Give the backbone structure.
Amino acid sequence: MNVKPPVTPSTGDESRAGFFFALSAFLIWGVLALFWKATSHIDAVEVTAHRVVWSLPVAVAILWAMGRTGDVLPAMRSPRKLGILFICATIISLNWGVFIWAISVDRTIDTALAYYINPLVSVAMGAIFLGERFNRLQLIAIAIAFCAVLLLSVLSGEVPWISLWLAGTFALYGLLRKTVDVGPAQGFLVEVILMFPFGAIYVLVLLADGASSFLAGSGTDNLLLILAGPATSIPLILYASGAKRLRLATIGMMQYIAPTMIFLIGLFIFKEPISQWQWLAFAMIWIALAFYSWSLTGKRMQSETAPGQAGGSSAAE
């Protein structure tokens, strides 16, 4: 009797699925600027607290559906992993808070700039803290981006601290997460568990003082605050699922989708003003990103043509 081997997804199927997951994540992150703008009448700290609180049940439900909840316990038993994940959770919570606040005070374009320069900040941190080496194109890209930020600071008379804070904290978060051997979805759940008591206590104190927008506010406000959890968890899980199926170069190119959408939303929907110096800085950043993207593409082509080497690398590395 002939026994058919089990059917496993082909590499093409995996890549298509990964592309769909990653694209969905970046599109959601792009349009979320509209969602956070809808919460702009609510204090940004309260929105961030609800973002943490309502992320917990969503993250648990997703991991349970994936059958991966058991992976969380080993991380919870390791003091080192727990300590690093606590620092990561603190950093990302501060990142969330500033992002929400920036959109509420009509600084959406600054947040777009942050996520344009984030890949370059990450490359710089990798070189400084992990001993990773720049290639020539990456060095040129970082130098152009540095000049853009310097030019913006001098000519506009204001250091773009929102952009630098968001890019720096997100890059630092990514750097620290690389030092912990915990999956992205599992690590996110642990981070939310660690932050949950702080978020819950803050929400309860506001409710007790009658200063909360939750329950005491409108039904729309209640819904917005509850949806802050899924808005945080779902794109992150989609991204994690896509990243492990796609090449690093592919993810590297796709990551500009979200900041481009945020930039266009800030410019055309929120009607935020943009100065000539900001336009010049953005133009320089886009040139820097072109060099950075080419460095990723060139590296992929080199690995694919080199004899005896597998092409590309996993974004989950």
User: Anything to note?
Assistant: The two ends are 42 Å apart (CA to CA). Residues 18-297 form one domain.
